[in-house]
């Protein structure tokens, strides 16, 4: 019961019901720090700086052309009307007759054609830049992720990390394809548009500026508040969805423990919360709509009314009034758009921060340049020496998981590690593979401190069969070949045979080409383990680490594999962690671990004769298997 519950809870904690938005890109403040984040991405932009500068220039021109078109549209409002009344308004910078409809039409058309061409080139340029930039960013982010030290993965939900970085990179793409361009364009339109408005009528402009932006700013603040509420709703919904997916994933436990009512109740509470929040949001939305109608439309009416009065009094020509209105619409639209752009920009900065933080994170000294190198075959195995080694996990400094380990493995020796779960056996193995570094003491491989070894070269001399075997989504053959990519077909087959995997592989219609994982067949735990063993055998390592590598096999298969193992372990140093003690009997030496210490060490016969902890464990297991 307790282990079941524990695994259920573990599954839960891995999926963090508390943080349903883990995949949403982070936002950064739009202050100096935000812009500093922006400059961090400069190295990725630098190779494309010329194209980038041209793109920026094109946006600038395009913004100015937008103003020009608006002015030309305004001109249409004056055609056919007596233009004697009203003065001012900036002169059209075009050699056309301001009263000639045909000429204005042709001018508008030509500007539009020019603008569309510029836009096309600009978008293509930015596409060109960002696709290259993002490729480099993705590569660096992935490289950094997989070369992080093991400790990095302790506190992270690995799947989440991948999708979050993917979302962040998408946000960066948005920033460089859309957001930056829009920011520049809108700024030009707002600045240039306001100047133009002043030339038509400064009085009307001031009135407009005194009312419309105030109303818009208020609306934006209100809008932001509503968005926050909506986000709360989204969060609540995501929280309730977590319950659904957790329950479905753990359906076996739910049913086995008759917890359906409990889950339903939990879900009911959450969706009641969702309902409450959603209703509150709806009410505020209604208030928002009323507010917009009164404020924004009120302001527009005021400006229109004043303009019409001036038109009637002859202070403004109809063409100016028309231009004024169109230009105001353009500027107001841009001001409204700017708010969204700032939001997007914040998201972009946040995303850059996340991605760059990952990229600059200190990595393991793994060699990413050599795809693979064959090992030297004449070695008789590595030597390992633990000299008073202690270790605690970085996230749990108070628990010493290894406590003063002194241990030597000579070349070619097979050492078995036994002891209760949680004794520190896997941890000890993870120090040898340099997944973890000793907190205190010295760990030497072949007479040199692990820290001084070339990490990649060192790991290439080892093979690990972990407790939990996760296969990659390819074929069985690809999964075995992972141990030694260049291996011949005969070698792959031989490794599978040694691992007793051949019978079931040949039993599949597609044999070694059978796809495993999601789109292929599902393999049992024992089959996965045998493939992982074959992978390790194929690698032909100098040090073989087997961590409960046969635990998922039935007793008969385990016995059969034992014979193959004994032969394979001879040529190399081996560390075998095993729960079933019958499998370690023939090891050269057996070390019994308890609470992070080695409490006994010796061969089977000696330890049995000594009548200590090992003998107790063996007798315990005998009792368990023959009640
Ligand atoms: P064994 O292999 O003997 O079952 P482990 O080496 O797996 O034992 O674990 C030893 C102790 O270290 C346990 O108490 C376990 O909870 C803890 N531990 C294992 N992995 C981690 C980790 N990544 N972070 C923190 N503590 C861990």
Helices and strands in order, then pairings?
Blueprint: H1 2-15, H2 32-40, H3 42-45, H4 49-76, H5 101-146, H6 150-154, H7 158-200, H8 202-249, H9 251-256, H10 260-312, H11 318-360, E1 384-391, E2 402-409, E3 414-418, H12 425-432, E4 440-445, E5 448-449, H13 455-460, E6 462-465, H14 476-481, H15 489-498, H16 502-507, H17 525-539, E7 543-547, H18 555-570, E8 573-577, E9 589-594, E10 597-602, H19 604-610, H20 613-625
Parallel strand pairs: 3-8, 3-9, 6-7, 7-8
Antiparallel strand pairs: 1-2, 1-4, 4-5, 9-10
Helix pairs in contact: 2-11, 4-5, 4-7, 4-11, 5-7, 5-11, 7-8, 7-11, 8-10, 8-11, 15-17
Bound molecules: adenosine-5'-diphosphate.
Any descriptors?
single chain, 627 residues, alpha/beta, ABC transporter transmembrane region fold, Rossmann fold, 3 domains, 6-stranded mixed sheet, 4-stranded antiparallel sheet, 20 helices, 62% helix, disordered N terminus, binds adenosine-5'-diphosphate
């Amino acid at each position: 019961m307790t282990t079941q519950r524990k695994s259920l809870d573990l599954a839960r904690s891995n999926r963090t019901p508390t943080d349903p938005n883990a995949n949403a890109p982070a936002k950064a403040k739009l202050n100096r720090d935000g812009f500093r984040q922006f400059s961090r991405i400069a190295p990725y932009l630098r190779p494309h700086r010329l194209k980038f500068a041209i793109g920026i220039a094109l946006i600038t021109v395009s913004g100015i052309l937008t103003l020009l078109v608006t002015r030309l549209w305004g001109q249409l409002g004056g055609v056919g009307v007596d233009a004697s009344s009203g003065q001012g308004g900036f002169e059209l910078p075009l050699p056309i007759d301001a009263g000639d409809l045909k000429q204005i039409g042709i001018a508008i058309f030509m500007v539009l054609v020019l603008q569309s061409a510029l836009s096309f080139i600009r978008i293509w340029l930015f596409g060109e830049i960002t696709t290259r930039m993002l490729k480099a960013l993705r590569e660096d982010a992935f490289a950094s992720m997989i070369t992080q030290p093991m400790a990095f993965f302790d506190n992270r939900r690995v799947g989440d990390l991948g999708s979050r970085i993917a979302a962040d990179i998408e946000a960066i793409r948005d920033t460089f394809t859309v957001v930056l361009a829009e920011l520049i364009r809108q700024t030009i339109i707002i600045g240039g548009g306001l100047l133009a408005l002043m030339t038509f009528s400064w009085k009307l402009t001031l009135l407009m500026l005194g009312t419309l932006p105030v109303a818009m700013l208020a609306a934006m603040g209100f809008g932001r508040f509503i968005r926050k509420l909506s986000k709360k709703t989204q969060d609540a919904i995501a929280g309730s969805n977590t319950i659904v997916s957790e329950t479905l994933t753990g359906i076996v436990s739910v049913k086995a423990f008759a917890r359906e009512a409990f889950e339903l109740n939990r879900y009911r509470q959450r969706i009641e919360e969702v309902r409450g929040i959603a209703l509150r949001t709806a009410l505020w939305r209604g208030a928002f709509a009323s507010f917009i109608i009164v404020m924004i439309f009120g302001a527009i009416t005021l400006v229109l009314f004043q303009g019409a009065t001036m038109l009637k009094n002859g202070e403004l020509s109809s063409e100016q009034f028309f231009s004024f209105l169109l230009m105001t619409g353009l500027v107001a639209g841009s001001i409204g758009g700017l708010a969204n752009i700032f939001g997007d920009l914040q998201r972009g900065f946040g995303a850059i921060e996340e991605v760059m933080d990952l990229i600059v994170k200190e990595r393991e000294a793994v060699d990413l340049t050599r795809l693979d190198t064959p090992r030297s075959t004449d070695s008789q195995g590595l030597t390992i020496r633990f000299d008073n080694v202690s270790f605690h996990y970085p996230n749990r400094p108070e628990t010493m998981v290894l406590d003063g380990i002194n241990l030597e493995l000579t070349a070619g020796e097979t050492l078995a590690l036994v002891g209760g779960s949680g004794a520190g056996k896997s941890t000890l193995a993870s120090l040898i593979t340099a997944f973890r570094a000793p907190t205190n003491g010295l760990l030497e491989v072949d007479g040199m401190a692990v820290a001084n070894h070339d990490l990649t070269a060192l790991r290439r001399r080892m093979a690990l069969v972990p407790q939990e075997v996760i296969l990659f989504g390819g074929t069985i053959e690809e999964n075995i070949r992972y141990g030694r990519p260049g291996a011949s077909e005969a070698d792959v087959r031989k490794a599978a045979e040694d691992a007793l995997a051949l019978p079931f592989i040949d039993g599949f219609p597609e044999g070694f080409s059978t796809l495993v994982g999601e789109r292929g067949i599902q393999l049992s735990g024992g089959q996965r383990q045998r493939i992982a063993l074959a992978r390790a055998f194929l690698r032909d390592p100098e040090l073989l680490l087997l961590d409960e590598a046969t635990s998922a096999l039935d007793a008969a298969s385990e016995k059969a594999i034992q014979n193959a193992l004994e032969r394979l372990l001879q040529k190399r140093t081996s560390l075998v962690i095993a729960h079933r003690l019958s499998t370690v009997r023939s090891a050269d030496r057996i070390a019994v671990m308890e609470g992070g210490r080695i409490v006994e060490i010796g061969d089977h016969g000696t330890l049995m004769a000594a009548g200590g902890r090992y003998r107790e464990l063996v007798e315990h297991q005998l009792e368990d298997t023959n009640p």
